[in-house]
UniProtKB/TrEMBL annotation:
Residues 344-408 form the HMA domain. The lineage of its organism: Bacteria, Bacteria division CSSED10-310. InterPro entries: DUF318, Heavy-metal-associated_CS, HMA_dom, HMA_dom_sf, UPF0718. It is a multi-pass membrane protein. The chain crosses the membrane at residues 12-34, 54-73, 106-133, 168-191, 203-232, 238-256, 268-288, 308-329. This is Permease. PROSITE patterns: HMA_1 (PS01047), HMA_2 (PS50846).
Length: 409
């Protein structure tokens, strides 16, 4: 059983590795050519066009469901309508360049394209409904340009490797490994007829998957091998689509953030829109796949690439993951040594930090406050430590909360 599990996990890893590596490269280029400042300038407006652009432009951007939070908070603060902000919060984490490519590699191009269209429709529908019921009152403010916004093209190009390795991979590495492990476990533990036996009703299966997915924190990339494994076990394509739409777009932290920056009414619309649209589109996909006999899952996309290319991708991804965990271990050991010095610093608890992207965002926010120095973020403790020349921590709390996180002493 252990040997079979290793084989299945290795299969998923090898099938998606080269596509994921290429996806990281594309995501890095997007980071270079479309920095956060560019996103804010194009999407931070109070009109219908901004909602449409938020739904469309959020799709390829390399931001996970926690990394999108500070960008969405900045969008709202810079004057974007509630609809545009919500559309961005939904479409961005649901799919990106990397998750699209591994969807193609593990499931097939039909499902991959349907996933893109479904993400766009879900985001646009939610944004339009929010604007319809809450109005489009913008709250544009003249804010300081963030360091990433003001950085030059050359500076961003220099940080391409570090962005991909430490910020992008760092934000999904743990969830990616978990996703591969879960996919391998599903392949050997769940019986072949499990879903037909216990969730044979297509609508019921979509509802169950939806209820499980909403509070779950999982990124678009990590959710893909799990969905592929479930499909191989007989889960309907519609239910798999619901999982891939609701899982990355919703989690406890994102729901809390939406409530804070957009209000309770927008949160209800946000959850309702994702639920309604994902189940509707899942039902349509089931009709296409099951009633019209259109083949949705092509598990042979790998045959288009030579074996040595896929093996090269696996080696590169393995090296990247090994480098990530070695760096993380080194940072953890260094953090343990520095904790003795934290007694001399002020500390704040930050709720909502889940990855290195979050920690970098919080660190930069605190460093932007005049009088702060020696800023350290401890993800294990969910705390940020720093020295400050005054006793007033309100300014520090405010700059962190503006990024979409909750702060307590």
């Amino acid at each position: 059983m252990v040997v079979e599990f290793i084989k299945e996990a290795a299969f998923f890893f090898n099938e998606m590795a080269i596509y994921l590596v290429f996806g990281f490269f594309v995501a890095g280029l997007l980071h270079v050519f479309f920095p956060e400042g560019s996103v804010l300038r194009h999407l931070g407006k109070n009109d219908l066009k901004s909602t449409l652009k938020s739904s469309l432009f959020g799709i390829p951007l390399p931001l996970c469901s926690c990394g999108v939070i500070p960008v969405a908070a900045s969008l709202r603060k810079k004057g974007a309508s509630k609809g545009a902000t919500l559309s961005f919060l939904i479409s961005t984490p649901q799919i990106g360049a990397d998750s699209f490519l591994i969807t193609y590699s593990l499931i097939g191009w039909v499902f991959a394209l349907f996933r893109i269209v479904a993400s766009f429709i879900t985001a646009l529908f939610a944004g339009l409904i929010v604007n319809l019921f809450s109005g489009s009152n913008g709250e544009r403010e003249n804010n300081e340009v963030s360091s990433r916004e003001s950085s030059s093209f050359r500076d961003r190009l220099k940080t391409l490797f570090s962005y991909v390795q430490f910020e992008l991979l760092g934000s999904i590495a743990g969830y990616l490994v978990i996703g591969i492990i879960v996919a391998g476990a599903i392949a050997i533990i769940i019986p072949q007829d499990f879903f037909e036996r216990y969730l044979g009703n297509q609508f019921l299966s979509m509802v169950v998957i939806l209820l499980v997915s909403i509070p779950m924190y999982i990124c678009a990339t990590a959710s893909t091998p799990i969905a592929a494994s479930l499909l191989l076990k007989g889960l309907s394509p519609g239910a798999a689509l619901v999982f891939l739409l609701a899982g990355p777009a919703t989690n406890a932290v994102t729901i809390s953030t939406v409530t804070k920056i957009l209000g309770k009414k927008s949160t209800i619309i946000y959850l309702g829109a994702i639920s309604l649209v994902s189940i509707t589109l899942g039902h349509i996909l089931n009709i296409v796949a099951l009633d019209k006999n259109v083949t949705i899952m092509h598990a042979h996309a790998h045959e288009l690439l030579p074996e040595w290319v896929r093996l090269t991708g696996s080696i590169i991804l393995f090296i990247m993951l090994a480098g990530h965990y070695m760096t993380a271990l080194k940072s953890k050991l260094q953090a343990q040594k520095r904790r003795a010095d934290f007694n001399e610093k002020r500390g704040l608890t930050v709720t909502g930090m889940n990855c290195t992207h979050c920690s970098n965002t919080v660190k930069k926010a605190v460093e932007s406050v005049p009088g702060t120095s020696e800023v350290e973020v401890d993800l294990d403790l969910n705390k940020v430590f720093f020295k400050i020349e005054t006793d007033d921590l309100l300014v520090v709390k405010n700059v962190i909360e503006e990024k979409g996180y909750q702060v307590s002493s």
